[in-house]
Amino acid sequence: SFILEACAVEFAYPDGTVALQGVNMAIERGKKIAVLGSNGAGKSTLFLHFNGILRPRQGEIRFAGHKVSYKHKDLLELRKRVGIVFQDPDSQLFSASVYQEISFGPLNLGLAEAEVRRRVEQALAATEISHLRDKPTHALSYGQKKRVSLAAILAMEPEVLICDEPTAWLDPRHSRQVMELLDNISDKGTTVILSTHDVELAYDWADYVYVMQQGRVIGQGTPAEIFLDE
Ligand code: ADP
Ligand code: ADP
Fold this sequence. Notes:
The protein is an alpha/beta fold. It is built from eight helices and ten strands. Residues 141-144, 169-171, 174 line the site of one adenosine-5'-diphosphate.
């Protein structure tokens, strides 16, 4: 079954920039999806549609077969189920300590204290930063901040994890580590969607790839279909 669908989505920013044109996608539950494209292709704009931060000018987004509703209460529910890790961790981190940062989301859901603690511990372990729990977020390295921002989203236990350029600015070794974390998360059943401009990464990691250019999907298929044809 499809967990997320984009149906003929059109979007333009207030300044008139057309960012998405006739975008169709049908994301299968539990799969690893790469959205491949260069800067400005529309990947981030699409992701912001997947959790309702942006609303299509035309077309629609569906979650688990239902057209997304933009009522406040329905949007909160959608954002609980579709988590986005942004490219720049500094845009996402605002708490004093790592532990506070990761517990913020679960606390906001109104979960019991023991459940909040369980989720934070699990997210710390999954991202291999348990040793950083008491550190001030501003004192962390770039790679560490990336992990904290991922952990904060994981603690929400989303059904879909979306990562905008998870390996941007990371060296090959750190990139591999991040991709291994995402594999582990996928192995537990979470649908993982990422954007990248790295063709090799998409080929090696994804079950299914969408290629975007100038706001359109210009190709899609399994890595073998996309990269070995012709
Ligand atoms: P990508 O994530 O693939 O780099 P984006 O979704 O960020 O692409 O951008 C798609 C297009 O929308 C680009 O032309 C970009 O310049 C434009 N864009 C992105 N954000 C804004 C914004 N806030 N206002 C106006 N144009 C924007
Ligand atoms: P570690 O995880 O061993 O502490 P870092 O987090 O310091 O390593 O670095 C991880 C990667 O991120 C390295 O490739 C480094 O060059 C890069 N990096 C570090 N700081 C920044 C930054 N402010 N902006 C972009 N890239 C950075």
